[in-house]
Amino acid sequence: MKKFQCFGGNSICLTVTGAGPGQAACAAAHILTLKGAGRKDYMINFGSCGAEKFPALSVGDTFLCRKIMDHASGRTYYPDLFIDPSFPEADLISLAKPYDGSQARKPENVPLLYDMEASFLYQAASLFMGPDHMFFIKAVSDFGEEKIDAGGLKAACRAHEGELVDFIRKLAAYGQADHEDREEENERLLRLAEDLHCSETMRQQLISYARYFRAAGIDVESYIGEKYKDGVLPCRDKREGKRLLALMRKELIP
Amino acid sequence: MTEEGFFYKPFSHVYVERRAMDREITEKILERLPGAALVPVDSYMDLFGRKKQNPAAARRNQALILAVKEGELIYPGAPVCQDFGNSHFYYTSCEMNCLFDCEYCFLKGMYPSGYHVIFVNIEDYFEKTEELLRRHPLYLCVSYDSDLMASERLTGYVRLWSEFTGRHAGKKGTGRLLTEIRTKSAPGKIWEELTPYKNVIFAFTLSPAGIIERYEHGTPSLSARIESAAKALDRGFPVRLCFDPIIVCSSWREAYADMVSQVSSSIDMRKLVDVSVGSFRISAEYLGRMRRAMPGSALVQYPYEISSGYYHYPRKLMEDMEGFLTGQLAAHMDKEQIFRWDNQ
């Protein structure tokens, strides 16, 4: 049963977390678990934020957060800056309650933003993926004193919608290219281990050889194919299997 | 996907510890990276020590961290490293990670991060070295966890270590401190700028051209390194050549014989301080991490054997390779100058 609104297809899933640290962390943990997210997946947190006054800073300006400070704990989190979403950078403080100006701090050399979700999302997502797979993009909706209405919030968030959608598409394409399907290969390996009558030690050896063959680009498929054709495989027993394994090592590995 | 602009450029960001901000070396480094975005941080470990980092990605888009190192700065040398017959063998790391990207490098398994860290409190390293020198002589390797020569234009640390060691040269030039600066670089001009002290050894790591091309990404060619070593030797610098690690390849005998032939035709090897020979070996813990991070590297995925917590080539292959190379080298220099890693 889904606890959070979730939209999407195969490669992109959009979740509305709702506002606040608890919602954010729960949503991340729930959806990332549900989707079986792991090291090859990416997470983008997009939302509105408050901001300290900063030269030339306006409502609607959208930033990539290079540093996320948790106000309550004092800890600082750093998403890696490897992939460039082409947004200017800012620092962010995640608060437990809405920014009202009383939590003000002085910006350093980039704008300073405030939200209530990022650091909690970072911590939750860290259980599933590395810091190079997380992006925190925030649109300035206010400077702390004023009231924000739904229309204003929507306008702020849509100010750089085009760039954001463009980045999401590029990231999804990049992520797909990065993903390798090894299911078929693993099944072949399992079959070979059975036909070699592998003990656990032999199985571990076979796995280590398979990793090497794959990395070295050695066409072990043809080699194994010949062994089946010649009747060497399947082996009669473990002793024959061990001999064939030793032969594989001698003939295929320098 | 390699679309222009999709990735940040290397050194686009420099993270600087606040306590490192006002240091002379910090200012010099930042001057040399005028386009970099400066990110103030509290502690370098907030970045370097994060979980689930991708060191390979970090090396592709390398970011720099400038920090102040505290606590222990000088460490006893590791058992897998050659001490060249020196007692009191120590090493130090005033930089972490390397501008080069060698596939077999133990740093990929040792460090959780691929970020390049420069510790800017070099004067503290000198102070700790002098503390140790008051107790006993020291053989100190200063370029193990990085390649100081490769980043010399940023830091000037080769010059600083050289000058510091020179001050401890003593009357005969050998003194109580012997420093080794190891590199895969091929500098030219530096040999005209530095003073050749007898107690500063410049160690060039050499591999066959095919191995360099395949595994030592971003490093100068074999020819360039030989030329640099020859120039250093000509100008009176103590030079060591390190044929370590030896890496197996399909025609390894020919490859290593060609390499020695190339070296000996450019360098009178009897003039070298010594050479070291050793096949690839690495701690099991480090290789485990490297294997998880680098599934596409044949070198890392090679089915090594393990003994006493270290992975290495099968013993017979190891003996064959090291014995072969030692024999090749012995044709050009005294056997006493050849140090082979004790793999017993």
Strand-helix topology:
The complex is a heterodimer of chains A (254) and B (344).
Chain A: E1 6-8, E2 13-15, H1 21-34, E3 43-51, E4 62-70, E5 76-77, E6 89-94, E7 112-115, H2 118-125, E8 134-142, H3 150-158, H4 161-178, H5 183-195, H6 200-216, H7 220-229, H8 238-252
Helix pairs in contact in A: 1-2, 6-8
Chain B: E1 13-17, H1 24-31, E2 37-41, H2 45-48, H3 55-60, E3 64-67, E4 74-76, E5 89-92, E6 95-96, E7 101-102, H4 107-110, E8 116-119, H5 122-133, E9 138-141, H6 152-155, H7 157-166, E10 177-183, H8 190-193, E11 200-205, H9 209-215, E12 216-217, H10 222-234, E13 239-246, H11 252-266, E14 274-279, E15 281-283, H12 284-293, H13 298-301, E16 305-307, E17 310-312, H14 315-330, E18 338-340
Parallel strand pairs in B: 1-2, 1-3, 3-8, 5-9, 9-10, 10-11, 11-13, 13-14, 14-18
Antiparallel strand pairs in B: 4-5, 6-8, 7-12, 15-17, 16-17
Helix pairs in contact in B: 10-11, 11-14
Concise structural overview:
The complex is a heterodimer of chains A (254) and B (344). Chain A is of the alpha/beta class and 254 residues long. In chain A, 41% of the residues lie in helices and 18% in strands.
What would your notes on this structure say?
The complex is a heterodimer of chains A (254) and B (344). Helices cover 41% and strands 18% of the residues of chain A. Chain A is of the alpha/beta class and 254 residues long. A 5-stranded mixed beta barrel of chain A has the order 3-7-6-4-8. Chain A has a two-stranded antiparallel ribbon with strand order 1-2. Chain A is elongated, with a radius of gyration of 26 Å. Chain B has 344 residues and is an alpha/beta fold. Helix content of chain B is 34%, strand content 22%. Chain B has 14 helices and 18 strands. Chain B has helices at 24-31, 45-48, 55-60, 107-110, 122-133, 152-155, 157-166, 190-193, 209-215, 222-234, 252-266, 284-293, 298-301, 315-330, and strands at 13-17, 37-41, 64-67, 74-76, 89-92, 95-96, 101-102, 116-119, 138-141, 177-183, 200-205, 216-217, 239-246, 274-279, 281-283, 305-307, 310-312, 338-340. In chain B, strands 4-5-9-10-11-13-14-18 form an 8-stranded mixed beta sheet. A 5-stranded mixed beta sheet of chain B has the order 2-1-3-8-6, with no helix packed on it. Chain B has a 3-stranded antiparallel beta sheet with strand order 15-17-16. In chain B, helix 1 links the parallel strand 1 and strand 2 (37-41). Chain B is globular and about 55 Å long. Chain B starts with 12 loop residues before the first strand and ends with a strand. The interface between A and B is large, with 35 and 40 residues.
